[in-house]
Amino acid sequence: MKKELPSISIITPSFNQGRFIKQTIDSVLSQQYPNLEYIVIDGGSTDDTISILKSYGNNIIWESKKDKGQTSALNKGFKRATGEIIAYLNSDDVYLPNTLLTVGEHFLEHPETMWVTGDYFIIDAENKKIQSFVASYKKYLRKKPSFSSLCVANYIVQPSTFWRSSLFNEIGYFNESFRYCMDYDFWIRIIQKYPPTVLSRHFSLFRIHDTSKGGTQYKMQFEEEHRVVISYTKKIPIIYAHKIHAQLIAWIYTVIK
């Protein structure tokens, strides 16, 4: 008898992203994955987000109340989720077709796999693909993932990454002291125990726009990244390599803007 695909829970943290969240939700529901739980944790939006959420009826699970920020909202969603496989998709990002089926089949066929990561395209507010060289660079770095290399550069693509919910019992939830790099901190904790399975598939569209953290607060993000790195390693060459790499990437972002 054919085994059933694992259940998947997707969490979307949201706050005043009414102009993008419908595309995000549609990209999840249109996957038509047979065992899907979709949870939206909204931080008390004052735009048209709530009316959009209501329009989906029972197709999504959602709540809206003031919270302590994105990381807190994610942990709230993770703790509420019941799926065997977990991921989060921010309220301005998008899944590409057949992403969940590809991921679910891989976890089913490879029970030893603890987490999976794939490729992505970077888009702007108008869905135009941008910064293809950044995506290509991260793809190159993902060829040989390791703890040391991940401490130098964060090449794991957040919206294209999925993991077994059992990992929360082993390494804990997201660190709520981090505002930008809670996922990076989580990846480093996982990779110390389990290597990621890197799939050569594009799973998501990562959006950079005028109000996104990645588009406007990248310098603060890199500073927080460095704090994450020095909390896991005392090796001076790795620490300096990360600092130099982050400064170079920040300079490139400044130039291309």
UniProtKB/TrEMBL annotation:
Keywords: Transferase. One of its GO terms (molecular function) is transferase activity. InterPro entries: Glyco_trans_2-like, Nucleotide-diphossugar_trans. The keyword Endoplasmic reticulum does not apply. Pfam families: Glycos_transf_2. The keyword Secreted does not apply. Residues 9-132 form the Glycosyltransferase 2-like domain. It comes from the Bacteria. This is Glycosyltransferase. It comes from Candidatus Roizmanbacteria bacterium CG_4_10_14_0_8_um_filter_33_9.
